[in-house]
Structure formats: C-alpha cells, structure tokens
Design goal:
Keywords: Membrane, Transmembrane, Transmembrane helix. Pfam families: B12D (PF06522). InterPro entries: B12D. The protein has about 90 residues and is an all-alpha fold. The longest helix is centred in the first third of the chain and has 24 residues. It is elongated and about 85 Å long.
C-alpha cells in the first residue's frame, strides 16, 4: 500500500535528485558541526579571564593601531581640493 501511494506521488526519476539533495544537506550539516567543534572562538570559554589578553591582542592588531589616528580619507589632497576651493 505504501509503495503504491509513493509511486503515485513520486516518479522514479526524482529519486536521484532526492539522493543528491540529501548528500548536500549532509555535507552542510557535517561542516556546521565540524566548525562548531573545531573553531577556537566557539570552544573557548568567553568568560575566562585568562583569555582576555589574547582577545585584546587579536582585536587590537598592528594595522588597527596604525590607522587609529589617521583621517578616514583615501586621498586627502584630492578631497581637500574639492571641499576647500580657493
């Protein structure tokens, strides 16, 4: 009874499509679980004070320290030419 109802609604040509979609969903699920288990941002205890300096070191890298006191202009001379005409 179940096979006749299944064949009535699903044609045999769609079974490979279901298999391919199932494999793709399985791979995505595997990657999600793998990333949750492996990434240090997920594994480490965020409330641990021993990791606080490590997080600050990661967030305050050299490029950010260098750019902190700079003006946010790509070409200051051209910007000044158009904003302050003489």
């Amino acid at each position: 009874m179940a096979s006749s109802a299944l064949s009535k609604w699903l044609r045999p040509e769609v079974y490979p499509l279901f298999a391919a979609v199932g494999v793709a969903v399985g791979i995505c699920g595997f990657q999600l679980v793998r990333n949750v288990c492996i990434n240090p941002e997920v594994r480490e205890d965020f409330w641990c004070l021993g990791q606080l300096c490590r997080g600050e070191k990661y967030a305050e890298h050299g490029l950010r320290k260098f750019l902190r006191n700079k003006s946010p202009e790509i070409m200051p001379a051209i910007n000044g030419f158009f904003t302050n005409p003489k």
